Each structure stands twice: as structure tokens, then as C-alpha cells.
């Protein structure tokens, strides 16, 4: 049989098989979305995973909300003001809003939500620590609540727009218990919970009474798919409309498919090679600067990441509050780097170790590229891959890293405070090495002021100071990449992955 | 026979105990789930971490935690997942049928394919058909299972979209994962059947049977196959352990909602109860299959029954 005939035969028989085997076509008006992980619990206070955030905003609302371009806008609160020298934050609440079970949303629901988050129930989960600046919530009248502050938290408004601070129904939780609520969530959001199959799928129907206008699609269906390659395959097969993990190598293939599209935009994730400033040659600031200058980050972005990233000069991307456009990355200059190393007395052939997340195949290539650039200035770098969780939770916090280690930070608040404080304040979890009084003072100052302009100045100063001390080799801020089926329209894709498919339609 | 069974049964329980003790201890060496859970939190204090640990019951001594796990496991209660609090027994009950379906179908397909092929190869030893079967099985042996899985997805879900690429959407979803496993298993099984059959065919009683003028088919399938069944059953029983190992990988590629996926994610997220539960169930399954193999000996070969 000639190859052509064989192909025709296969095509014909596959067509016949298709009608037998493939499940019936998707119902009109259902949007299918792939998520890389099942957080296992839909209670806002139970988890900190990004995958929770990707789903949570469909079923819950916060007092404040964030638009897809990251602006803070009124949510369940219509306005807010600071009182009593910023020790009190007063919210005026939206009226006529009901939870999906019919329970009314009011000041009591807000108080219940925060009493729960800040009390015994919240202690069991990781969210509480983000809201510790709040002393208590006081009901003024059914449509007004006061947040009494223990200490200032300039990022509070952002935090109220997401995750743990989503407003939950008091009566429902009191009657059914937290465990039931975690598997059968009820909120005020645009979609109502329909069915949850752990590790498999989660489905919603539209909330026709949504205060912000009913969603356009009838059903929303999430599937948990861990492997990026499998997400891409499902997208190609037309069985999902939105994929949130696309392997870079697949982007071109997907773009060539007339049914599919790929969207790549600035994202919250920044990457750096942090320096172990207490070890060997790395104690010398000039050596650290030289290593930073030895690596051509633009080339890495272009060839390995295929342009899906932007170079950075501090450990944050352009969307982050505190980003300083005037601060430029150290230039790629191997000759000067070599001279600086020589001046510092570093012998050619000196060895260092780079620790990185072994499961990240893209970063493995980046690490190899960094090592070969360092080889170019006479430094021999050995690569040590770790399991991501081991590196993040054991090696780094206990200070057992090599001379350089990969640090990747999500910064969901899009505020440099969150990153800088965790990375540079003395004895923070991801700062095993640096103890700098000036840096601590700056971090403390910005965290204790509500004045955003003053904060921005301080945050930019922190960025400059860290760059000047060369505490890390800033690499790039990674794009958020979505694989899409063109039949889905008006998706309003957010940079931080927290979808809200209110206006989305499906052809 | 009953004394032998009792001894084997007690041994099996002992093995499961050792496995669960080891796994429960080992995963606690892998690190602190409280750190995992609070990974993205802005500034977590030691106090916050201690609260989370206490909520998970991790502040107690290891042996107390293990004893509690055992007490629950006896009645099928493996506690609650750290990631979300779903009862582990529910997660396992959801995942077990998917894994069993995949294991049994792929093992079944592999036996149906490899026994006739192995026999044909043995009967035609050294001839063209034997060569062909051996080469094909060698090719099958050389495929890494994840690579084969990805190739099947490309071919049957994307180039010719006749099957769903992943997940569970009815029986059609079972085809590719089972095929992947069956191809890998058959490659080894064919060679095993061929060798066992060759050995049997050279035995004296086969020559006697042929001399009596029995038909080839009767000689092969009644006399020879029954006699080489023992090494085959032993091997397939032992293979069950490997099969489960391979399933972990294949389940991941196909996003198969089974125990492999569950165990894999539990390791990644340091979800002690889920890992303990899945490992217990998997080890009970493997040990039980080995026990069945021992019993099957007796059924197939009367000589063992009387020993």
C-alpha cells in the first residue's frame, strides 16, 4: 500500500472512530479552563496557592477588587477612607448583594469573615500572617464597617483585594462547618459552585443575579492538569479554551494552529541568582558585581526564553509598585568583569556552585548559560539541581546554599515590599546571609507609612541600594503566558493569573 | 496448605507494616509541610508556622503520629489531606478504580498479545517469524514509557484526533494509557513466554505426547502451556509491582486521576497523610498479588498443593 493511501485510510478510519469514541461536543456556552494544581480546598483562608487565586475570584468577591490591568477598584465596598490618623479604615458596603445561598451580604458578614481569618480558625492556615496588621473589625451599621489597625500596613488595600480576605457567608459556614464549606464554596461572586471532583475538575454555573452583571457564559469548567505538555495537547485537541501553563517550546506550534492563540504579557514572577555573600570570593562586592557583568542576560532572554521575559535591575518587574525605570541593569561587559576579578585577587579557575530548581527545564538551560558565561571570565561554576520544595524550604532558609542560588518570586501583591522584606530583612526566611542595618531601616520605614509617594521613594532607594551592594544577579521578569482557543472571546486575561470570566463568551 | 497460607499471610502483614513505617518516617525527613503551606505568604513568623504545625497535629512525637495512623488505617481511615482537608480515604476511593482499571486492562491486553506471540516464536524458533517477533519486542523494550505516551498523544489525539489526550472521559480515555503500559509489558512478556515455552517443548513428556500422535494444538496449549504457566504467573505477579511503578509515570502524562498521580502530588507537596494512605493501599495490592501468586501455584501444579 502506498503511503498516501495508508494516510487516507487512517484518516477515514479515525473519522469513523471519532464518532464512536470522542465524547459529545462541548455544550454551547461552556468555558473550559486548565489549572496546574488542585489546592484541595476552596475556603479563602485555607491555602496560599496561586491556583486557588486563579479560581477564587470567580466565586468570591473582596471588599476591593483588582481589574485585569491590576488597578484597585471598588468591590463589595463602594468606598473607603482613613480615619483617626490612619489608625482606622472605614468601608461603605454595597447594598442589595446576596450570597449564592440567598444569605444577605452586610457588615456582619464582613466582621464574621475577619473574625474567622484573624481568630482560631485562621491560625490553622497560612493566610492569617498577611492580615496581622488588623486589630479587629467593628460594625458601625449594616452598611459600614471600621477596620481598627494594630500597625500600619501600606499593602493592606491590595491584600483586601484577594485571597484570604474574600468575603464569606456567616450563616452557611456556621451551619455547615468549615470542612463542608471548603468543598462546597459559597460566595457573592459571578459564578456559583456546581461540582468539585478532587484532583479532577471543578465546575460552576453562572450567577444570574451577580451585582456586577451576569456572566455571559452559562458554565465554567476547570480541569486540573499538572503537566504543561498535557495542557498544550488538550488545547490542541480543542478540549480546553484557556491553558495557564504552556511550554515555551510549544508556543510556535500553537501559534501556527489557526484555531489557537498565545498571549504573552508582563507577569508578576521575577528571577534572580542570589549571592551567598558570606562565602569565599563572594564576600567581595566587586566580585559579585563582576559576576553580574559577566552574564549576557539579554541573550539568555532572546535565545532560551524566546523573548518571553524582560531584563530587570532589581528583584521586581515593571508592574511592581516600587519599580524604578531609571535603575538600569549592569551592562554585559566580560572584559571589565575579568579586570575587576583580577583586581579583587580572584584566581582564574576559581570554582563556585549554582543551586537551582531542577524540575524547571527552562531554568536548567538558563543556569547552564550563566555557567558558561562565568567560564568566559575564568570562573568554573558547577550546577546543583534540587527539588523545588527542598531548595525553597530547606536549603535556602537553613543557609546551606552554594555561592549562587536561584530565587524566583511571585509577588502577588505587585508591591516590592513583599519581595524586598522577605528577601533582605535580617533573618527572614529567604535571607540566610545578609544582615544590613541600613537596609533593615529602609524596609522598616516603608512598611510603617501609609504615604504611598514616600513609600515609592523608599522602595526605589531599596532597589538601588541592593543593586549597589550586588546582593544578587537580577535576571529577568517572566511573562505570563496563556494558550487560548480562539472560540473564547473577551477573556480579559490578568497578569497575575486571577481570572474573572464575567464578560467572556464562547462561540 | 493452610499452615503455609497462614505463614505467608503473616509475612504479608509484616511487609506492609515495615513499608508504611518506613514511608511515614521518610516523608517526615523530606521537610516541613507548614513551610510548604505558607510558601507565598509575605512574612510568616515562627509563631505562625507553629500554629500551622499544631493544626496539622505535627507537634507530637513521630511514634504517636504513626500509631494514630495505624489505628485509623485498620478501619480504612487515613486522616485528612494537609492540602485542603479532604479525607484521604475519599481521595483514594476516587483514584483506586482508575488505577485498577488501567493496571488490569494493560496487564490483560499484554497477556492476550504476548502469550500467542511468545508461543509462535518458540514453535518457529530461529525462523523468520521468530526473528520478527524478537526484533519487535526488542523495539518495544527500548521505549521509555513517558516517551511512548507522548508519541501516542501526538499521533492519536492531535495529528489524528480520535482519542482524548488526557483525563477521564469514558472508556475512550483508557485506550492510550493502557496501550502505553501494554506495549511496554508485552515486550518483556513475549520474551519470557518464548523462553519458558522453549524449555518446556524440549521436555520428554512433550515428545511422548507428540509420539502418541496428539495434535500440535493440543500439545502446545494443553500440555506445554500448563507446564510453563508457573514461571509465567510468578513473573507476571512480580511484574505487578513494576506495573504500578510505571503507572505513576503514565498517569502523570495522561493526567489520569489515579493513585500514581495522587502519590506524586503528595510527595511534591509534603502531604504526609495522602502519601501514607496511597503507599499503604499500593503495598497491600502488591503484597496481595504476590500472595495470590503463591495460591495460584497450588491450583496450577498439584505437586505444590500436597507439599
From TrEMBL, chain A:
Keywords assigned by UniProt, alphabetized: Signal
Q: Which residues form the Solute-binding protein family domain?
A: 71-428
A Gene Ontology cellular-component term: outer membrane-bounded periplasmic space
A molecular function GO annotation: peptide transmembrane transporter activity
Keyword Disulfide bond assigned = no
Q: Which InterPro entries match?
A: Peptide/Ni-bd, SBP_5, SBP_5_dom
Where does the UniProt annotation place the signal sequence? Answer: 1-27
Regions crossing the membrane: none
Q: Which GO terms describe its biological process?
A: peptide transport
Q: Taxonomically, which superkingdom?
A: Bacteria
Q: Does the keyword RNA-binding apply?
A: no
Q: Which family does it belong to?
A: Belongs to the bacterial solute-binding protein 5 family.
- This chain belongs to the protein called Peptide ABC transporter substrate-binding protein
TrEMBL record, chain B:
Under the heading PANTHER family, the entry gives: DIPEPTIDE TRANSPORT SYSTEM PERMEASE PROTEIN DPPB-RELATED
Q: Which SUPFAM superfamilies match?
A: MetI-like
Q: What's the superkingdom here?
A: Bacteria
Keywords assigned by UniProt? Answer: Cell membrane, Membrane, Transmembrane, Transmembrane helix, Transport
Know the name of this protein?
ABC transporter permease
Membrane spanning stretches: 9-27, 100-123, 135-162, 174-193, 232-254, 274-300
Q: Which GO terms describe its biological process?
A: transmembrane transport
Q: How does the record say this protein sits in the membrane?
A: Multi-pass membrane protein
Tell me what organism the protein belongs to: Rhodoferax koreensis
User: Which compartments is it annotated to reside in?
Assistant: Cell membrane
Q: Name one GO cellular component term.
A: plasma membrane
- Keyword Secreted among record annotations: no
State the family it belongs to.
Belongs to the binding-protein-dependent transport system permease family.
Which parts of the sequence belong to the ABC transmembrane type-1 domain? 96-297
Q: In its keyword annotation, does this UniProt entry include Methyltransferase?
A: no
Name one matching Pfam family.
Answer: BPD_transp_1_N
